[in-house]
Structures are given as structure tokens and as C-alpha cells.
């Protein structure tokens, strides 16, 4: 009887140990699955952040390139406007010069007419 009780006790302990071992394995497996799920969830966020960063870098490079082109075009426009302004100033200078010459020619013409009239009057007298 004592030996049968011991055997029963050992069988129950063995069954409890197996049950505990199975539960421990299940707990380890569940913890591993949970850890893997958490890591996967975090990796998705990190991967998304990495892709967003790559897109931002590409757009920043494109923006920098566009800004450089805009700056270059603005410089060209400024040079063109400066050239146009200089040409207008030169035209104004030419117009002023022409008016001055025209005034001088008129003065000379009037003077020559006066001299001619005087010489005609002196010849008449």
C-alpha cells in the first residue's frame, strides 16, 4: 500500500512536472511570439520613418536644385535688365546729343542767315 501510494505520488508529480513543463514551453513560446510581434510592429514604424526620410532627402535635393536654377535665371534676368537699362541710357544720351547738335546747327544757320542778310544789305547800300 505504501509503495502504491508512493508510485501514485510519483506519477502525479511526474504528470504535474510534465504539465508545468508544457505550460513553461507554452509561456516561452507565447513570450517569443509577443516579442516578435512587438519587434515587427516597431520595425514597421522604423521602416516607414526611413522611407519618409529618404523621400524628404530626395525632395530637399530637388528643392535645392530648383532654387539654384531659379537663382541662376534671376541673375540672367538681372543682367538682361541691366543691359536694357544701359541701352536706354545710351539712347537718351544720343537723343540729348542730337538735340544739342540740332540747336548748334540752328544757331549757326541763324548766324549765317544774319551774316548773309547783312552782306546783302551792305551790298545794296
TrEMBL record:
In terms of InterPro entries, this protein maps to: BLOC1S1 (IPR009395)
The protein's matches in Pfam families, at most eight in alphabetical order, are given as: GCN5L1
The entry assigns this protein to a family as follows: Belongs to the BLOC1S1 family.
Any one of the GO BP annotations: endosomal transport
Identify one Gene Ontology CC term for this UniProt entry: BLOC-1 complex
Q: Where is this region: Disordered?
A: 1-24
The name under which this protein is listed is: Biogenesis of lysosome-related organelles complex 1 subunit 1
What's the source species for this entry?
Answer: Photinus pyralis
Amino acid at each position: 500500500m505504501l509503495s502504491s501510494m508512493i508510485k501514485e505520488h510519483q506519477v502525479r508529480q511526474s504528470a504535474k512536472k510534465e504539465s508545468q513543463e508544457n505550460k513553461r514551453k507554452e509561456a516561452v513560446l507565447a513570450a517569443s511570439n509577443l516579442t516578435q510581434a512587438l519587434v515587427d510592429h516597431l520595425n514597421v514604424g522604423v521602416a516607414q520613418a526611413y522611407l519618409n526620410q529618404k523621400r524628404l532627402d530626395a525632395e530637399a535635393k530637388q528643392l535645392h536644385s530648383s532654387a539654384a536654377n531659379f537663382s541662376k535665371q534671376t541673375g540672367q534676368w538681372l543682367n538682361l535688365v541691366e543691359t536694357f537699362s544701359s541701352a536706354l541710357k545710351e539712347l537718351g544720351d544720343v537723343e540729348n546729343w542730337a538735340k544739342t547738335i540740332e540747336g548748334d546747327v540752328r544757331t549757326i544757320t541763324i548766324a549765317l542767315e544774319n551774316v548773309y542778310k547783312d552782306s546783302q544789305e551792305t551790298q545794296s547800300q
